[in-house]
Amino acid sequence: MSKYWKPGSERPRTVLVDDEEGGVLFLSSPPSSSGFGHSSLERQRQRLPVYKYRTAILYLVENHATTIIVGETGSGKTTQIPQYLKEAGWAEGGRVIACTQPRRLAVQSVASRVAEEMGVKLGEEVGYTIRFEDQTKPNVTKIKFLTDGVLLREMMDDPLLIKYSVIMVDEAHERSLSTDMLLGLLKKVQRRRPQLRIIISSATIDAKSMSTFFHIRRRNIGQAAEDPTPSELPAILSVEGKGYNVEIHYVEEPVSDYLQAAVNTVLSIHDKEPPGDILVFLTGQDDINAAVQLLTEDAQNNGLLVLPLFSGLSRADQDLIFSPTPKGKRKVVISTNIAETSLTLEGIVYVVDSGFSKQRFYNPIPDIENLVVAPISKASARQRAGRAGRVQPGKCFRLYTEEYFVKEMPAEGIPEMQRSSLVSCVIQLKALGIDNILGFDWLASPSPEAMIRALEVLYSLGILDEDAKLTSPTGFQVAEIPLDPMISKMILSADTYGCSEDIITIAAVLSVQSIWISVRGAQKEFDEVKLRFAAAEGDHVTYLNVYKGFIHSGKSSQWCYKNYINYHAMKKVIDIREQLSRLLRRLGIVLKSCERDTQVLRKAIIAGFFAHACCLEEFSPNGMYKTIKSSQEVYIHPSSVLFRVNPKWVVYHSLVSTDKHYMRNVIAIDPSWLIEAAPHFYQVRKPNPAPY
Ligand SMILES: Nc1ncnc2c1ncn2[C@@H]1O[C@H](COP(=O)(O)OP(=O)(O)OP(=O)(O)O)[C@@H](O)[C@H]1O
């Protein structure tokens, strides 16, 4: 007797072809609509291409440990499959169905759509978890959307992911660092827990290589006879059919300025095309703001409502993107690639694709990670086009030639694993007890240089010992904190310096995109206001001043508005700070304040960031610094309160690269503190012996 079919309802009525190679293709008759009501949402659900495959999907999931589902964008994979699984009983007996997404925005929006379709309150039967936000209820939530990073963290407490019956790894083609780690780990879990079902889904994935990867050869580990193990051969299902048609348009000649070309295309759509909102893909906050400004100059008179979309946008601004377009207006959403996958913005009919995105590239030799504007892959281009045609036919305007798309654009992007720092990845795997990281079952191997560099960084921070094992307690504690290991080390060191209360405020501010509101046309006023908070020691201490002011104002939105401070970001800071203080209490750390002893504060920051020390080049007219570690040329970012102040010695939080490498969030230091914090990393250079 199969274990999940509801009595009398949805057993497969067409016998499926289950080919022994693991390549499975079929069509089965859909279940009768009995049990479904006839509201318009239910009719919409039944119109989706994936609906025809409902029985097939359930059959495969029951009979195969892993099912790989490939289907066009908008065919209904993300929103429907978790519901089918729930309807078929996979969430009974306290079990949970998980669906992971690479991006937080997608997690939130898909969860609220599924809750709406099921007619339940978000956070109850359907919930979501992203870092620092948990909208689920134990023993109530049956379908849970979460980022792949959050699921990795959950593995630290529950290595076999016991509470989940099925884990659907959605948008697997994105090959984010967390997705790749998760896939390797899930394969391990499956060996130990054959009853766990995995679904891997995407519109553009190499199903065959994924299938080869997941073809596990299970060790014989006594299963109960009444609980037959599913086939070890992954099944592949191709969902044919798509939502609505999307007409693709290419430029005839390559464009030299994609930003201007995007703006011109929006204006031309507005001029010539029937009503419908527009989604534009640019690369980052700077070019998005520039495009918003260019379009807004015209917008007053021409009926455009222009909205930016990037990660770190406040909840209120985010809600504007999803809210219905006012009558007589045409909404233009200008976005980074965060809107590329899984999102449905209802009014969008037109997509403008610049062909570029900001991508992380890591060079392990100087240990520098850059965000670089780089061409996208065909897989991304298809995802972008797929944001049109979700609720009606659409058009996609690609700002590159068809020849370029066909002949030059790579089929897939480089996995993030192969172009980013592996520090966080190594620490997570170590915390999960995986010691031989190079021997881990990677979908694509990371570079040995990056791996060695990560081990070196973690060793220098005292997180790993000489045998590359997590140190106790520091290493284990750092692994518990869901932040970059350097920030986590800074937080833990603050305990020694007696300033953890202040440092968690700084850590919370560093975890949100920016607490300042970007001001167009009011730069002078903004600079003046910022000066009121500016601390001579640098940005981190300035943030403490802002936080104090905010608390003092009674957390007032008016106060924020007057001071060019992002109210929603500050609310997020309060929230993250609260979670960090709870976490520290759990680690047995008592919070203490150093009452603005800025020397002590900076020493705690250096304990995490000593490797980011730089010295101003003597006689440099333009404020050039060199990193101590690798003599890399860097400059203080104009957004820093130390811009043009140029103290001799500084430590930075992160680097951004445009025309130069810029340090963001900078503090002035005394070089002797570096030796105090990291004697194993720095040595005082002895003067050359005197010539005789
Ligand atoms: N918030 C929403 N509002 C209106 N319709 C929606 C919404 N979310 C989903 N839909 C409808 O459901 C369809 C399927 O969406 P779903 O995200 O499940 O597709 P998908 O196959 O996972 O696509 P993708 O690969 O692009 O994520 C959409 O094309 C749209 O018609």
TrEMBL record:
<keyword id="KW-0378">Hydrolase</keyword>
<dbReference type="Pfam" id="PF21010">
    <property type="entry name" value="HA2_C"/>
</dbReference>
<dbReference type="InterPro" id="IPR007502">
    <property type="entry name" value="Helicase-assoc_dom"/>
</dbReference>
<dbReference type="InterPro" id="IPR001650">
    <property type="entry name" value="Helicase_C-like"/>
</dbReference>
<dbReference type="GO" id="GO:0003724">
    <property type="term" value="F:RNA helicase activity"/>
</dbReference>
<protein>
    <recommendedName>
        <fullName>RNA helicase</fullName>
        <ecNumber>3.6.4.13</ecNumber>
    </recommendedName>
</protein>
<dbReference type="InterPro" id="IPR048333">
    <property type="entry name" value="HA2_WH"/>
</dbReference>
<dbReference type="GO" id="GO:0016787">
    <property type="term" value="F:hydrolase activity"/>
</dbReference>
<keyword id="KW-0347">Helicase</keyword>
<keyword id="KW-0067">ATP-binding</keyword>
<dbReference type="InterPro" id="IPR027417">
    <property type="entry name" value="P-loop_NTPase"/>
</dbReference>
<dbReference type="GO" id="GO:0003723">
    <property type="term" value="F:RNA binding"/>
</dbReference>
<dbReference type="InterPro" id="IPR014001">
    <property type="entry name" value="Helicase_ATP-bd"/>
</dbReference>
<dbReference type="InterPro" id="IPR011545">
    <property type="entry name" value="DEAD/DEAH_box_helicase_dom"/>
</dbReference>
<keyword id="KW-0547">Nucleotide-binding</keyword>
<dbReference type="Pfam" id="PF00270">
    <property type="entry name" value="DEAD"/>
</dbReference>
<dbReference type="InterPro" id="IPR011709">
    <property type="entry name" value="DEAD-box_helicase_OB_fold"/>
</dbReference>
<dbReference type="InterPro" id="IPR002464">
    <property type="entry name" value="DNA/RNA_helicase_DEAH_CS"/>
</dbReference>
<feature type="domain" description="Helicase ATP-binding">
    <location>
        <begin position="58"/>
        <end position="223"/>
    </location>
</feature>
<dbReference type="GO" id="GO:0005524">
    <property type="term" value="F:ATP binding"/>
</dbReference>
<dbReference type="Pfam" id="PF00271">
    <property type="entry name" value="Helicase_C"/>
</dbReference>
<dbReference type="Pfam" id="PF07717">
    <property type="entry name" value="OB_NTP_bind"/>
</dbReference>
<feature type="domain" description="Helicase C-terminal">
    <location>
        <begin position="262"/>
        <end position="433"/>
    </location>
</feature>
<dbReference type="Pfam" id="PF04408">
    <property type="entry name" value="WHD_HA2"/>
</dbReference>
